[in-house]
Design a protein that fits this description.
With 416 residues, the protein is an alpha/beta fold. 43% of the residues lie in helices and 9% in strands. The protein is built from 14 helices and eight strands. The protein has helices at 13-16, 35-65, 74-91, 100-115, 137-145, 160-170, 186-194, 199-204, 212-215, 220-223, 244-264, 293-305, 356-359, 377-406; strands at 123-124, 155-157, 174-179, 206-209, 227-230, 268-271, 311-319, 347-350. Helix 2 packs antiparallel against helix 3 (74-91). The model is unreliable at 1-30 (pLDDT under 50).
Length: 416
């Protein structure tokens, strides 16, 4: 197992002296402060911002000292990640010192990854205390993400379907959540949405993960917190070309592991059939990226091979891109993308299950008649993917409308 690394900020004794854990708290302020109270509040915020800047500077210096061990370009990425994270805390009128313990924990895990890179198996089981792991990554993830996620503006549309999903899993059926994907923090968003009332589902959910989040040192400590089916997506499998055969062999092993999970029953798998995160259009507006027919068809094939266990497909929309916004353009093969921490809300919508047999049933009497008829298997896969994407797009429109209707500070007006 990786040794516990020397913490990157350990020598900042002057700043970090009070190192006892502080429970997360929400500070509420009156909206009718008198002028003196307003001045006092502004002064407190300025003090917290100064503290955040000082802590960030200390961390930045320690990270720079490790620069020769980090991948090229990674030092400024980690520095900016920590700076913006601490700024998020300060802007909530909270003492940034509250989050120093979890930052030290996280940076120590990053250093562990540098010392002894962890290689994810095709199916990775979450590193948690419940699973007898040496470090509870889920607990760290939850504490780290806490100031980033606003519970007062978060919604789960179709929440009644979570109970339906739990009932299906309890009787041994499988559930596949066909979803769009907007941020590396989407698994954390699921934890946030489910933890209070559906903790078992939160802990048992399996995520389909691409190679970025299993190889980037900034992401690995969070990725180890999840049950993952690890694949190379179509966006990255060809780069570099000489590694394509190895990546294809890895994906074959993942498919074998997935089939074994399907045959075992009672599994809930979240997947983004687009193969990656949504990107904004020229006007900065996000919409769910198109689904890859081969990805949807592969999950249908797995469910057919595990015929003894019924599999249910639910469309899911997620509006979460405010949290660590993805780069506006794709960079195939590149790792170490910038991370900018921004507070936001979690917006998830779960739709009615899709009956793909019904969707792809109609055959053509003559060419293209009746309208929408399906000619062959390839056509059926295309129809299935387009139908699932349509359901997700409609759910996403519901999330946008709900955000506008409530005047969300994160996803209203032109900022969705």
């Amino acid at each position: 197992m990786p040794r516990r690394a020397v913490l990157l900020v350990a020598s900042a004794s002057a700043l970090l002296a009070p190192q006892t854990s502080v429970a997360p708290r929400t500070v509420r302020h009156s909206t009718t402060l008198n002028p003196l109270e307003q001045l006092a509040e502004q002064a407190q915020i300025k003090a917290y911002e100064a503290s955040a800047a000082a802590i960030a500077a200390t961390i930045s210096a320690k990270v720079a000292e490790k620069g020769d061990r980090m991948p090229d370009g990674m030092v400024p990425i980690v520095q900016e990640f920590m700076r913006t994270y601490l700024d998020v805390v300060a802007k909530q009128k909270r003492d940034p010192m509250e989050k120093v313990p979890v930052l030290k924990e996280y940076l120590g895990l990053v250093e562990d990854q540098l010392d002894e890179p962890f290689v994810f198996a095709p199916f990775h089981e979450a590193w948690t205390e419940e699973n007898d792991s040496p470090h509870d990554h889920l607990k760290m993830d939850t504490a780290f993400m806490e100031p980033m996620l606003d519970p007062n503006d978060s919604v789960l549309l179709g929440s009644e379907r979570v109970k339906d999903i739990e009932a299906l899993l309890a009787k041994g059926d499988n559930v596949v959540l066909l979803s769009n994907h907007q941020t590396e923090a989407d698994p954390s968003c699921w934890s946030f949405a489910l933890h209070e009332n559906h903790e078992r589902l939160e802990r048992d959910m399996i995520m389909v993960a691409g190679d970025r989040v299993t190889t980037d040192v900034v992401a690995v400590p969070f990725s180890k917190a999840r049950n993952l089916l690890c694949i190379y997506s179509k966006r990255h499998i060809d780069n570099p070309p000489e590694e394509k055969p190895k990546k294809m062999r890895h994906n074959a092993k993942t498919m074998t592991a997935m089939l074994r999970l399907f045959k075992g029953g009672g599994k809930c798998i979240w997947v983004a059939p687009s193969g990656g995160r949504d990107r904004p259009d020229a006007d900065g507006v996000y919409t769910p990226a198109a689904f890859d027919p081969k990805s949807v068809e592969m999950f249908r094939l797995m469910s057919a091979k595990a015929a003894d266990k019924t599999t249910h497909f639910f469309p899911v929309a997620m509006m979460t891109h405010r949290l660590f916004p993805p780069p506006k353009t794709l960079t195939p093969g590149a790792l170490g993308e910038p991370r900018k921490a921004i507070r936001g809300s979690v917006n998830i919508a779960i739709g009615e299950p899709i009956d793909f047999d019904e969707v792809t049933r109609a055959g053509c009497l003559v060419d293209d008649f009746p309208p929408g008829c399906v000619e062959d298997r390839e056509d059926a896969a295309q129809v299935a993917a387009e139908y699932a994407h349509l359901q997700v797009s409609q759910l996403y429109a519901d999330l946008v409308k709900a955000a506008k209707d409530r005047g969300s500070p994160y996803y209203s007006a032109d900022r969705y």
